């Protein structure tokens, strides 16, 4: 009777452990799907907005870390890219927006989105009058400028620090997010 009781207790413990192990494995198996889904959403948004995945990942993570909704930041940066293109094409309103900041649209386009964003923020922060700075920000970022206020008030050094930290973390496509997703998928496949 004592042996049977001990065996029952051990069996119950093993059943509980097995159940916990199955639940843990289920959660682990969901990680590759979540990473892949996040990577796919970033890729889709990158294509839709015409912003490179690396730049978009940097902007996304910096925005979210500073309490700015990613959608607002992405929309504002997309507007900036369109305004740069219009300025380079000679559209007067867009050209004047970048002239006011002392910037050359062609040169900014050649640098890429993240570098142009850093340059625009640095130029905006050189405008001493708050209302003039807000108007210039709206000319470049559209209505998204208001929601991006925290990012636009940061110094170039602060933003670059976020970008470097993000790159080092491996949370961007070239920094390892795609590789991490692939490794997670491979691990998931090996569990089946």
Flag low-confidence runs.
Answer: 27-32
**How far apart lie the N and C ends?**
41 Å
Largest sheet: none
Order of helices and strands: HHHHHHHHHHH
In round numbers, the mean pLDDT is: 78
Radius of gyration (Å): 24 Å
Overall structural class, as computed from helix and strand content, comes to mainly alpha
Question: How many beta-strand runs?
Answer: 0
Fraction of residues in H or I helices? over 70%
- Could you say which overall geometry the principal axes of the C-alpha atoms support? globular
Which percent band covers the strand fraction? under 5%
Q: Please count the helical segments.
A: 11
Describe this structure in words.
The protein has 192 residues and is mostly helical.
Task: List the defining traits of the structure above.
192 residues; mainly alpha
Summarize the structure.
By secondary structure, the chain is mainly α. Helix content is 84%, strand content 0%.
Helix-strand layout with pairing:
Layout: H1 2-49, H2 53-65, H3 70-88, H4 92-100, H5 105-111, H6 113-124, H7 130-141, H8 144-147, H9 149-152, H10 156-169, H11 173-191
């Amino acid at each position: 009777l004592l042996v049977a009781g001990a065996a029952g207790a051990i069996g119950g413990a093993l059943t509980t452990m097995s159940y916990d192990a199955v639940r843990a494995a289920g959660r682990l198996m969901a990680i590759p799907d979540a990473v892949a889904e996040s990577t796919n959403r970033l890729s889709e948004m990158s294509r839709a907005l015409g912003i490179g995945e690396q730049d978009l990942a940097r902007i996304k993570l910096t925005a979210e870390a500073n309490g700015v909704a990613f959608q607002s930041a992405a929309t504002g940066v997309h507007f900036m890219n369109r305004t740069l293109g219009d300025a380079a094409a000679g559209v007067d309103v867009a050209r004047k927006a970048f002239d006011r900041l002392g910037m050359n649209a062609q040169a900014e386009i050649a640098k890429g989105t993240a570098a142009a964003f850093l340059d625009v923020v640095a130029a905006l922060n050189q405008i001493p009058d708050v209302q003039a700075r807000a108007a210039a920000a709206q000319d470049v970022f559209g209505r998204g400028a208001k929601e991006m206020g925290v990012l636009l008030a940061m110094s170039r050094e602060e933003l670059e620090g976020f970008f470097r930290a993000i790159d080092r973390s491996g949370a961007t496509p070239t920094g390892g997010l795609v590789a991490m997703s692939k490794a997670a998928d491979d691990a998931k496949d090996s569990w089946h």
